[in-house]
Give the backbone structure.
Amino acid sequence: MRLVRPARKDREGSAAVEFAMVALPFCLMMFAILELGLVFVTDSVLANATMETGRLVRTGQASAQGIANRDAFKAALCSRMGVLSADCPGRASVDVRVIPQFNTNPPDPMSGGTFNEGALTYCNGQPGSIVLVRVWYRVPLLTSFMSQGLSRLNDGTVRMQATTAFRNEPFAPVAGATCP
């Protein structure tokens, strides 16, 4: 009598199929984690560069070093952006203004779904002035779902913002350092 064995299923390609099913979601998740990490690093670098460059205004060094307009302030800011400094001049927008009190709400250049560069100003202020420094940095994101979650603009671009406010120290005012 002959024994009949049950037919074995051919499983040679099953590992490849299972890998294909989990590889794409795994790679997307890893890429999203890396991009989110880059967003956090960019935010930290931007915040530190904004505080350090704002300190130049607070202590009067900005006026003494001839930083009297947005482009000069942006150059000083971008020099403090570390690995992000190469793309910084094209991606950063700067607003330095004197405000009457700390609870003042300045105009938002991102209202209406577009970024309005015309709403930005530059003024170092005088000794004792309250100064608000705001910096926006356009972040290029590669995953569309990250852009959808972070963007307030109609074109889908993401702008990170760093802000610092302070009262200028009593330094000696520099001639010609008045605000418009």
User: Anything to note?
Assistant: The longest strand covers residues 130-139.
